[in-house]
């Protein structure tokens, strides 16, 4: 897929980060959420991106920072109301992403009926791996993703367990929000999310494809 910009560095110029919530049944259950009948999605600003070598900064207002490891789908060409059967034509590749969540803030937002922006969109809330071209992933629905904290396995999941498939997600979202080249869709997290402490080291990966490391630091 030809691109006017370097997709291998999509995080430098891509506009939108679209996150799909509750797309793994066991994760929805662990947070006592009902299973969705259609994709639940929210946005992060592009300023949420952080790359390996820089730390994840816990927001000053957060006392319960959670990790959520997710497969990211990188859009390679504009998609507006695309059907499922052609949705994958708009995919350029993939990345591993973390949806860092200020869980205590999110819980308060839910109680008050407020948006989740403070809980999900803060600076460094979207650690992201290197770009993986589409050709190197024969089937994105057959990937094992995992996350360790200080060497201890916390999350292990298989993308085959997603409630909504990638073509369905792209078709659904593009009927509401036009997807642009360089945008990323985070496809949901498997069970095992948990709280992080100051100076924790996160290692996460897509089995047989790539891995990445980040340290958690407080916002002094």
Automatic annotation (TrEMBL):
Superkingdom in the source lineage: Eukaryota
* Gene Ontology biological-process annotations: oxaloacetate metabolic process
The record's annotation in InterPro entries points to: Fumarylacetoacetase-like_C (IPR011234), Fumarylacetoacetase_C_sf (IPR036663)
Question: Quick one: a GO cellular component term?
Answer: mitochondrion
- Keywords recorded for this protein, A-Z: Metal-binding
Domain Fumarylacetoacetase-like C-terminal, which positions? 17-216
Reactions this protein catalyses: oxaloacetate + H(+) = pyruvate + CO2; 3-fumarylpyruvate + H2O = fumarate + pyruvate + H(+); a 3-acylpyruvate + H2O = a carboxylate + pyruvate + H(+); acetylpyruvate + H2O = acetate + pyruvate + H(+)
- One GO molecular function term? fumarylpyruvate hydrolase activity
EC no. given is 3.7.1.5, 4.1.1.112, 5.3.2.2
Q: Which family does it belong to?
A: Belongs to the FAH family.
Q: Mind telling me what this protein is named?
A: Oxaloacetate tautomerase FAHD1, mitochondrial
Q: Which species is this record about?
A: Podarcis muralis
